[in-house]
Automatic annotation (TrEMBL):
<dbReference type="InterPro" id="IPR003593">
    <property type="entry name" value="AAA+_ATPase"/>
</dbReference>
<dbReference type="InterPro" id="IPR045006">
    <property type="entry name" value="CHLI-like"/>
</dbReference>
<dbReference type="GO" id="GO:0005524">
    <property type="term" value="F:ATP binding"/>
</dbReference>
<dbReference type="InterPro" id="IPR025158">
    <property type="entry name" value="Mg_chelat-rel_C"/>
</dbReference>
<protein>
    <submittedName>
        <fullName>Magnesium chelatase family protein</fullName>
    </submittedName>
</protein>
<dbReference type="InterPro" id="IPR027417">
    <property type="entry name" value="P-loop_NTPase"/>
</dbReference>
<dbReference type="GO" id="GO:0003677">
    <property type="term" value="F:DNA binding"/>
</dbReference>
<dbReference type="Pfam" id="PF13335">
    <property type="entry name" value="Mg_chelatase_C"/>
</dbReference>
<dbReference type="InterPro" id="IPR020568">
    <property type="entry name" value="Ribosomal_Su5_D2-typ_SF"/>
</dbReference>
<dbReference type="InterPro" id="IPR001208">
    <property type="entry name" value="MCM_dom"/>
</dbReference>
<keyword id="KW-0547">Nucleotide-binding</keyword>
<dbReference type="InterPro" id="IPR004482">
    <property type="entry name" value="Mg_chelat-rel"/>
</dbReference>
<dbReference type="InterPro" id="IPR014721">
    <property type="entry name" value="Ribsml_uS5_D2-typ_fold_subgr"/>
</dbReference>
<comment type="similarity">
    <text>Belongs to the Mg-chelatase subunits D/I family. ComM subfamily.</text>
</comment>
<feature type="domain" description="AAA+ ATPase">
    <location>
        <begin position="210"/>
        <end position="380"/>
    </location>
</feature>
<keyword id="KW-0067">ATP-binding</keyword>
<dbReference type="Pfam" id="PF01078">
    <property type="entry name" value="Mg_chelatase"/>
</dbReference>
Amino acid sequence: MKVCSIGLRGMEGYRVQVEVKELPGMPSIVIVGLPDTSVKEAKERVIAALHAFGCDVMNQKLVIHLSPPERKKQSPMFDLAMAIGILKVKGKLEQPIPSHIAFLGSLSLDGTIQPVDGMLPAILAAKKLGFQQVYAPYDPTFPFQYLQHIDCVFVQTLDQVAQCLQGKQVLFSTNHLPPAIDPPQKTHRDFEHIIGHEDAKYALEVAAAGEHNVLMIGPPGCGKSLLAETFPTILPSLSDEAQLEVLSLYQLAGETKNDSSPPFRHPHHSASSVALIGGGTQPKPGEVSLAHRGVLFLDEMAEFTKKTLDMLRQPLETGKVTISRVSSTVTYPAHFILIGAMNPCPCGYFGSKKRYCICSPKQIHAYRQRISGPIYDRIDILLSLQAVDLTKKHQQLERSETIRRRVEAARFKQYERYGEEITNGRVPIGVLLAKSPLTKRQQQLLQHWAATNDWSNRVQTKIIRLARTIADLAEAEDITDEALWKAMAFRRIKEGRQERNMGC
């Protein structure tokens, strides 16, 4: 008897065929096909669940093969498929089991079906693999409003599965769900509450519109963390596809997320490289993957170890992270906006107009060198902040909702231009230049400033991307000279002396 289930390798799902056969010999159950400990223990759970169902399997030898045999099986998700295969072999189920049905779930000793980590990505993988129907345990944390296109039958006990297969009972199914409305997002943060920092707010608006990375440098208490924590309020809500992708990553990591807002991750600077990138004996997503489609905020960025920061090179460049272990190699998506914040020097007051810096040039240089040149190259916008003088009159403050509408309009222009949901910060440079070429004068201007400031080819590319986003926010069809000048200004930190020696 053959019953289908789903195995996971990172976010990638693959078809697992559970084959059950009765053989003469000593009564026993043998599981083959590279099962790990959680799968080997399934035979005790399945025996107890089948006994509660009224099926005795201790009078004959049963061999259960999990195919493909060359891939290690690492989840108790196959319990239900094993139990269904045994029931069919023992004649307890008369109806044939179609190959387009997948069974997912772990069994309790009383026959109750329980969800496990990775259930949501497995359900999504079943649709991609061509399964027409999925039997899975009910989980109240599932985003049912996004599963309308998947015929998923939610069951609670082994007896209910048997009744459904015999056509006697159809329980909770995604096909019978009314479309749900996502509740409005509530946050106590808003840009209208931040006084001053008009240039920084505009830079963050550009970053949100084109998905550009930002590094803020300024003295303690000048508002770096406040700006970064308010930044998600101007980001558009996630699409259904993106929301499912994010929720799948959170479920694999054993965490929860209850809304459609872009994720915001804020790891402490003492976090290890495994916590940031992901890993473990059975590799799980790290902070860079949990920030997928959202924001990764590294406060006190220079306090992270240099080795840990350099691990960000691959995800910042490719939008994914590959984790290799002896047991397996998995790839998780890591498409995020990096927001970094750091002090200008160890004491924090280099360049301050109100406090005296006690750091030597050598100390300042060593502090800045904690962030390597390749990481600086992958940052689009460099912001120098100063404390706000509250006694001065400031411009009228805009609400985050107003800024978010401009960001959404700019992103819509980018989606139309490229024919897919991709932004200026992520689109291949060849496509960007084909759709928005620079004039000969603009090319000469960029080359002149690149030579003057010793900018790498990557930095020049990022300046073109920034200019395209600035032009989109200004509703310009082509990259204007003004947009190019503003983009180049975002790469120069105005801190006065020793600027060239600080790695910026």
